[in-house]
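Quick illustration, no need to memorize.
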Amino acid sequence: MKSIGLIGGMSWESTVLYYQTINREVAHRLGGLHSGRIQLCSLDFAQVAAGQQADDWDGLARLLGAAAQGLAHAGADCVLIATNTMHKVAPQVQAAVSVPLLHIADATAAAIGRAGCRRVALLGTRYTMEQPFYREHLARAGIETLVPEAADRNAVHQIIFDELCRGQVLDRSRQTLQAIVERLARQGAEGVVLGCTELPLLLGPADVPLPVFDTTTLHALAAVDFALAP
C-alpha cells in the first residue's frame, strides 16, 4: 500500500472527513483491520484564510509547497490538498515535489463525466466561484460551470467561513443552499458540485433534485485508488 500525503487543516472539519473516508474505504476494500497509510500536515487555517483575504497567493503557494515537501520527505507517495480553494496554487505545489499531486478537480470531472453531465452548478468559497482556476480546470474536461449570482455567492461564502468551518451545521443554511441550487437548476444545471470540502457537512443527495458531486469524498476515494493500485 502506498502512503497518502494530506495537506489538511483548511478547515480541520473537512480534514476529518478525508481521514474517515480514506480509512473506511481501505478497510472496505482490504477487510480486517486494514487502514490507510496517511502522512498528515495540518495547517493553521487562520493563517491560510488571512492569506486568501490579503490576496497573497504567492505566499500561500510557498506555505503549501513547504508542507508538500515535508510530506514527501516523510515518505508520502502522493500529495492531496484537502480543500478546493487552495487548488488555485496546485501548479506551484506540484512543482515543489516529485511525487504526484492528485487534483481535486480531476476526481470531480471524472465523476461528472461518468454521470453524463456537461453543465453543472458550482458552489464553494467566493474564491472558487469567482476566480477562473476551478472552472477552467473543469472546462478542459468539457464541463461547463454555472455559478450563483453575487448575493447568493456571498451567502454561500458566509455559510462556509462563519458556520461550517466552525462546526456549525444549521437547517436554515441548508434551506438557503437548496434555494440557490434550485435557481441554478432553472438555468440549466444538470448537477451540483460541492466545491468546498465543508459543504458535504450540510448538503447531500437527498437535499436537492440534482446529482450531487461531493468533492471531498471523490478526492479521498481517488487517493485510495492511488494507494491500492499495483
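The chain has ten helices and seven strands.
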